[in-house]
Amino acid sequence: MFSNVARSTPPRFATRTLIATLATVAFILTAVLVVVTLLVRDHVRRSVVEKLATGQRLFAALEARKVEELRAQLATLVENPTLKAALDTYEAERRTAPPAVRAQLIATVKREIDKLASRLDPDVLAARDFEGRVVAVSGRRASDWTTDGHDREPAAADGTFLVLSSDVFRTVTAPVMLGDVELGSVQLAYALDDRYANELSALSGAHTLIVSDGRVLATTLSDATAARLIATTQGSIPTGLVDFADQEYAIRPLLQGDHATIYVLDSVDASARPLVRSALQKMGAIALGAFVLAGLASLWLARTIAHPIDTLSASLSEMTRTRTFDRPLVPSRASLEVDSLTDAFNSMMASVKAAEAETLNAYLGAIHALATALDARDPYTAGHSERVSALSVAIGRRMGLDEATLEVLRLGALLHDIGKIGISDNVLRKPAPLTGDEYDVIKTHPTVGSRILQNVSFLQPHLPIVELHHERPDGGGYPYGLKG
Fold first, then answer.
1. Which residue spans within 213-277 are E strands per DSSP?
2. Chain center to CA of 123
3. Cα dist from 463 to 322, 417, 482, whole Å
4. By the 8 A CB rule, do 155 and 164 touch?
5. Which residue in 139, 241, 238, 236 sits closest to 186, CA to CA?
6. Residue 198: exposed, middle, or buried by beta-carbon count in 10 A (0-12, 13-18, 19+)?
7. Helices (H), 94-159
8. Nearest Cα to 144, choosing from 113, 122, 115, 123?
9. Which comes out higher in pLDDT, residue 91 or 22?
10. What is the pTM assigned to this prediction?
11. How many CB atoms lie within 10 A of CB 435?
């Protein structure tokens, strides 16, 4: 009923060992990889924060030095006598001079400012009058400072930044003095634009973000990332570690004023990515080597254990097939456990053989007792079975039969008349000649004996002797009258 049911074949020991080993190695390497990634990320996070802090300190020092140098340059420039004369004339006549003369005075100041700007190449170099109004402007970003008639003051300065409608400028100012009289001032400014942001990024090694009142003035970030940061922080950018744009950024202010702040920021993920990639590559090489070594080791281990087991299994199968249980199994000397199993099996087989020998002896004893009891029923045939057995063995030896056949012959001859147990004493021990019917009863003892012994498995080879010992070559025997 179950002959058609599919039975799954379990994997071999070598396969299970290989799978278990590789799975263990993979689990360990995965855990190590996760730990290494977390450690690298944590290390990079600290490194980025420290780099920004170092950059902040360096920038502050460089910016202070730059301002001092610019002030020193301005102090030299404002001592220019031509500029002083132009401003002095402008201050003296600007209120009373007609517009055409006033324009000429402004042009004179402008020429002097252009000469000074050519020596510095600034974003803006501006000359202001005594009241702070811009008189003349020069430089790359001069157009951002142009006012109608050059007589209106631009957006208020806070001492650090000058906020205009178009941009925000960092400024340095030096007064123009004629003796003890202040004629006006010269203002040097550089715009906080993309050019400035790129210069800061090159200096700090991080991204730069310049913000004024929640508005991005310049940045080295992409427009989408900068907009995401402003939207995430609602214009109030925190310092420290901030998550936005699906990344973690470290942010630190470089320079702060009332209306503008310069930030440096760096992506922890972007900084960690090369290190993690390098770690993954190295871990990949280690993993490959580990898998190869683990595979070879597991196959060697499995073979060390499986080969002796396969040898033992083959020996047992051969022993079962040939039914030769008298030869002990040879230990493999390759596995202590398998050799222990082999020794245990040999001990078990020795015990089984000893038990079989005892059982056989018990059977033989019972057979002898049975034959003796049979002979005791008929004093006329007393000792008959023993004599037949001895004579049969002697004849067999002369015929050159082997010991196994002689043993079959000996027991078969000893039991040849066992069927007489089923014959009544009236017939078996009758002193007078037997009648025909009684003789027919006597002739049934071979088949009766065969039926008695046929259920004893180890006596199967002896049954022909018991059943056919009264047959004759000429066909005159019984119970079947066989010929030949």
1. 215-219, 240-244, 247-256, 261-267
2. 57
3. 23, 11, 16
4. yes
5. 139
6. middle
7. 99-120
8. 123
9. 91
10. 0.50
11. 11
